[in-house]
Specification:
The protein has one domain: Leucine Aminopeptidase, subunit E, domain 1, CATH 3.40.220. The protein is built from five helices and seven strands. It binds adenosine-5-diphosphoribose. The site of adenosine-5-diphosphoribose (APR) has 25 residues, from helix 1.
């Protein structure tokens, strides 16, 4: 575990399974249809139980899902987390299609939603770096920078955790954090 203090809060990097965290909200790396999938999306839906797909289905019907870079919120179902914030990261298409900005938007939209719900703690997975193919060493600095800027300009959420699923992912995020300071 690694921890960095910013003006209004703390960023923690941990290796683990995001479905086990006891925080106000965990973030899901979802798709635009909010239809569930593999990776972290599958793990979150399995751990939360059927209420999650039902709520996602209602959001799909009401507003057609969630655009890339956006975020929507549901309850946490059977999870320890009270809420799940579903964000849709960009699919990597070579880096010239606005991917960096959209990835930044994903973290920003999720943090804005957490702020609107006055949530104190939020946990993120490494968005877009699995099935969506975003190179890890390019995604990590964007995640770190967006989160750090939020912690330096807003009081809520005050505890932000990046939950990395493997040691390799953790090491890449730690390197990005250290090179940013
Ligand atoms: N906890 C934390 N991180 C996890 C977990 C878990 N339980 N399971 C997987 N991960 C990690 C992966 O190792 C990867 O680093 O989440 C990161 C993101 O990978 P994906 O889950 O594949 O997400 P993404 O690349 O954003 O692709 C999203 O995949 O599952 C579908 O419906 C989803 O279409 C969407 C796409």
């Amino acid at each position: 575990m690694y921890q960095q203090e910013s003006k209004y809060g703390t960023l923690q990097l941990v290796v683990g399974d995001i479905t086990e965290l006891e925080v106000d909200a965990i973030v899901n790396a979802a798709n635009s249809a909010l239809s569930g999938g593999g990776g972290v999306d599958g793990a979150i839906h399995r751990a939360a139980g059927p209420s999650l797909s039902r709520e996602c289905g209602r959001i799909r019907e009401a507003r057609g899902g969630c655009p890339t870079g956006g975020a929507v919120i549901t309850g946490g179902g059977d999870l320890r987390a009270r809420y799940v914030i579903h964000t849709v990261g960009p699919i990597w298409r070579g880096g010239e299609k606005g991917e960096a900005e959209l990835l930044r938007d994903s973290y920003d939209s999720s943090l804005s939603l957490a702020r609107r719900y006055n949530l104190g703690s939020i946990a993120f997975p490494s968005i877009s770096t699995g099935a969506y193919g975003y190179p890890l060493e390019k995604a990590a600095p964007i995640a770190i920078k967006t989160i750090t800027e939020h912690l330096n300009s807003h009081r809520t959420p005050e505890r932000i955790i990046l939950v990395l699923h493997t040691e390799e992912t953790y090491d890449t995020y730690l390197a990005a954090l250290n090179s940013q300071r």
